[in-house]
Queue: 2 jobs
Job 1
Amino acid sequence: MKLIVEHLTFSHGTKKIVDDISLHIKKGEFVGLIGPNGSGKSTILKNIYRTLTPVSGQSLLDGENLYQMSRRKTAKKIGVLGQENHISFDFKVEEMVAMGRSPHKGLFTIDTKEDRNIVYNALKKTGIENMAKINYMNLSGGEKQRVLIARVLAQETDFLILDEPTNHLDINYQLQMFDSIRELGVTVLAAIHDLNLAALYCDRIYVIHKGQVYKAGKPKDILTEETLLEVFGIHTDVAIHPITNKVAITYLPRNLNR
Ligand SMILES: Nc1ncnc2c1ncn2[C@@H]1O[C@H](COP(=O)(O)OP(=O)(O)OP(=O)(O)O)[C@@H](O)[C@H]1O
């Protein structure tokens, strides 16, 4: 499933937040959006998954205009893990994850054996199968995040949009989540704050700066000391790690005497 975003522009009042952004994501690619706080990453994603409506531009999923697609059809094609996940009612963990199946079912259809298997596998993949009967509200921040990831996995879409998917997770689960998502082999567009994780998992990266695409390309070409200084204002030492053969960034304190 491929996504083409063309000339997307979005404003809050008179303030332009996203300015003429174009993204091309090929089938099976894992693409990261990186950029400083407030650069517009979430706003771009929300315009694609339609929590916000762009002023101009379009998003095409396999050539089909997303803004003209029914919500149900969109949910069958795109799984979304947003940054704000306000849950108003308390549900058991397994009920929360089972909600991921709803786009595939009729209004009052009972869960099939297949649905239950998919839900169980999603619980297992995220390491929360032993929490299935616990109320969601009683979980820690990281456990809640794993439930939300399990729900999007249970949705079984070919395209995932993830906004800070490993927010709240300890490093073990961050790696596990990225590994699991990569293993799915689906197309992914994810906003990622951790630059080393972006380097490890992304095929390509878009650097977002002040609402625009600053640079785009493979992690090795994008995550350079110069770009990190220009965009984030940070000093780094960037090398290719001998084991992973991926970019490894060491952050340098400002007052380091070199
Ligand atoms: N309702 C709003 N009215 C005005 N400005 C807004 C509104 N919502 C967001 N913004 C501004 O839009 C800009 C982009 O926000 P966005 O959440 O897309 O950034 P981000 O790159 O995802 O940031 P972060 O890394 O902090 O999550 C920010 O400056 C934010 O203050």
Note: The two ends are 48 Å apart (CA to CA).
Job 2
Amino acid sequence: MKTFKIIRPDENIRPALIDKINNLTKPKGSLGTLEELALQIGWIQQTLSPTLQHPQNIIFAADHGIVDEGVSLSPKEVTWQQISNFLHGGAGVNFLCRQHGFTLKIVDAGVDYNLPYDTGIIDMKVRKSTRNYLHEAAMTEEEMELCLERGAEVVRNCHKEGSNILSFGEMGIGNTSSSSLWMTCFTNIPLEQCVGAGSGLDNVGIRHKYEVLKQSLDNYRGDRSPHDIIRYFGGLEMVMVIGAMLQAAELGIVIMVDGFIMTNCILAASKLYPEVLHYAIFGHCGDETGHKLLLDHMKARPLLNLGLRLGEGTGAICAYPIVQSAIRMINEMDNFAHASITKYF
Ligand SMILES: Cc1cc2ncn([C@H]3O[C@H](COP(=O)(O)O)[C@@H](O)[C@H]3O)c2cc1C
Ligand SMILES: O=C(O)c1cccnc1
């Protein structure tokens, strides 16, 4: 399997970073989460003057065989139709990218449609849709490997373009189902608490989705290793995100984590390489059932709580101005000595 070299950033810089933050003209700790973010990004970048360069939101898209079982309110073709909307600039993620200066990249990981690649969509298609994991593994070992490699390749290209912060998003009707299965397998939280409305199921629909996913789990005969669970229940776009996140961490790129699906992707990535979590900033806690439970389980502290349940990277991008403030704080605030203010602590 593709390997990644992900290290915990060097601790040696931390005292100097803490010292710099504590000497800014404010009571110690009074800028709270902004101070934590500045420390984290300075630590990742190994500098006392961290920067944010060329932010990009990368949407990985694919279809899911399990959709045949009626687990989503939305029909499968919404995946490619929404991609077309992304290209025309009319989706939720588009106005947020425009507002916050993000470049938007769309990656076809496995959409069940012949997409027009001359529009700028990045062709990384591994196959058209996963198989239906009610009956068989969603993807083969080779397909999983291709997903990891291609996700990593997309991020290497962003790195070459100068990005040091990336947000990841997804589009794939049915992908809250894969997410719920990864969540229950990796956290041992009962499946019932991991299954929610996704793109809009009512209670009857959620019950049916739960029954299908429960049956899929009962039918599973794999070895329960992280690798096998990722492969068996994964979405092609979600495994590509894992490759992308791992490559980002290897390159020292800050990872902005979006909603329920992306939180599950970084959870799964951390089962392969635990150190990936040092590079993650959790953008928000959304309304999809299980998201808060999962964040709590991971001891993650999301920046926002806006009741979002869309995906596409929207919640991560909404949180970006807070990250920008943290970077301005550490670079632009004066210190006690220079400002001639008596330091009383
Ligand atoms: C128009 C539309 C736009 C979306 N953008 C993101 N999603 C979100 O909904 C899907 C997951 O929900 P489920 O598992 O219930 O299918 C994903 O595509 C996710 O990105 C959308 C869903 C719809 C309908
Ligand atoms: O939080 C998410 O990522 C999410 C929730 C519902 C539907 N699509 C995405």
Note: The chain has 14 helices and six strands.
